[in-house]
Amino acid sequence: MTPLTQARPLLSPFPPSLLAGSRDGLAEVLATLAEAIDTASTAHRPAGPLPAGTPAEVLAAATEALGAAELPAEGLGAKAALQRLATVLVEHGIDLSHPRAAAHLQPPPLAVAVAADALASAGNASLDTYDSGPSAIAVERWLIGVLTRLAGLGERADGVLTPGGSLSNLMGLLLARDAASFRRGINAREQGVAALPGPVVFCSELAHFSTHRACAALGLGEAAVFPVPVDERRRMRPDALAAALDALGPDRTPVAVVATAGTTDFGSIDPLPEIAEIASGHGIWMHVDAAYGFGALFSERLAGRLAGLELADSVTLDLHKLGWQPAATSVLLVSDTTAFTSLDREVAYLNPVDDAEAGYDGLLGRSLQTTRRPDAVKAAATLLTYGRTGLGRMVDTCHELARHAERRILAEPELELVAPAELTTVVFRYRGNARPAVLGELNGALRRRLLESGTALIGRTEVKAAGPGSRTRVCLKFTLLNPTATADDIDGLVDTVLDAGRTCERLIEEGAA
Ligand SMILES: *Cc1c(COP(=O)(O)O)cnc(C)c1O
C-alpha cells in the first residue's frame, strides 16, 4: 500500500444526518428544536412581549445564558446547543406574537412561512446561476408573476427579491438614475454621475429616510432630495410637485418621483394617479415605495386605496411587513423588464455567453447581490396556503384593530388622537392633566417605562403639527400586525398605556415640585 491510498478516507466519520439535505437530517433536528422551544416556553416565557429590566440588565442576562464567549473544545451536541439558544431567545428575547407587541412594522411571522424558510435553507440554493438552484429560480419567477399581476403592472413587468425595503428603494432609484442618465447620453454605470447635471429626486416630506440614503449611495447626494409638502391627510400635494418640477432650471436633471403608498408612521398613501400623470408629463421615472402599503392589495376593502400603483415604473414592497414573512422578504417590481439591463453582468465562472445562450442562466443580472437566498420559498408557501382571501382577512383584521384603537383613544380624555388609522397604525399621545411643556418628556418616559416593565411594546415618533413653522411633538404609535389579537387585547394595551402615563405624569410633576 502506498501512503497516498492510506491517507484517503474510504468512510466518512460523519453520519448522513449531519447535513440538512439528507433524508432525515432535518426532521431529526427539527424535532429536537420543537422540544427545546416547548420546554423554554413552558418554563421561562416572560408575561409580556419583552423581558422586564433595563437594557443593560436584559442584555447581561441574555449574555450570561449564552455562556462564556469561548469556542468549546468538544461540542455540546444539537440538543444542548438548541436548548441553550431557545432559552436565550425565548426567555430574554422579543415575543412578536404577544398581543401587546405593537411597536414597529415587524410582524409576528406565520408558522408556515418559517417552516418553508427552513426548507429553503436546507436546500441552500442560490438565485444567481442556473447551476446553483434551478427550482429556486422557478419559485422566484412564480412569486414575481403573482405580485406583478396583483399590482396590475402588465405583461412586460418583472421583479427581483431584495434584503429589505431600503435596498428595494436603492435599486429602484438606481434604475431611475441610469434611465435619466441614458436620456442625457450618459452611461452612469461606467462614467459615474459626475456628468449628470444637478440631479433631483422628488418625494413627500414624509418619505422613508432610505430614499435620502439611496441618493447618497448612488452618488446623487442627499441634497438631490426635494421634499414635497403634504396635505392635511399627510399625502404628497400634486400641485406642489407640479410647481416644483415646472420651476426646475435647465441645469437640473429630474431623476425620479418617489411616491409613498403607506407612510411608515401614518399609513397615508400619496395620490398615485395624479403623481403618475405629472411624472409621465415630464418624462420622469415614478417609483412607488409601497414597502408598508402593498399588503392592502390582499384586502378587497382596502385595495382600491392603491389605485394608480399600476402606473409606476418601479415598486418597492415588503412582505416582511403586511405579509407576515420573517425578514428579509422584500421585492422590487418594474413595469418593464428591460429596466434591468443596467445591472447585467457577464462573469466567466457564472454565466458565460455560450452557457447563457444554451439556457443555462440564472438571475445574476437582476440583482446587486451574487449569492442570494431563495426568500421566495416562504412567501410562495404563504400565498399558496392562505390565498388572497386568507391574507386579505389578516389585513382587514389588523385594520379593524387599528380602528378600534382609534375609537378607544378618542374616547379617553387623557389621550389625544394625532393621526387616525389609515392602514394598521394609530398615532396618539398621552396628555393626562400635564402641562404642555412636559408632554414630550412625559411621552418619551411613558414608552421607556413600558419597555422596562416588559408589559407592552409600543412605538414612538415625532409629528409636525399643522401649519407653517410649527414644531414637532413626541407622539406614541401602535403598529398593529397581529391578526390573532382581539379588541379586548387592544383595550388592555390602551389601559396599560394609561396606567404608565399616570405614573410618569405623577413622577414628573413631583420631580418638578
Ligand atoms: C419599512 C419601510 C422601508 C424600509 O424597509 P426595510 O425593509 O426596513 O429596509 C421603506 N419605506 C417604507 C415606507 C417603510 O415603511
TrEMBL record:
Protein's UniProt keywords contain Protease: no
A single MF term (Gene Ontology): transaminase activity
UniProt cofactor(s): pyridoxal 5'-phosphate
Pfam family, one: Pyridoxal_deC
This protein's UniProt keywords: Aminotransferase, Decarboxylase, Lyase, Pyridoxal phosphate, Transferase
Family: Belongs to the group II decarboxylase family.
Name this protein carries in UniProt: Aminotransferase class V-fold PLP-dependent enzyme
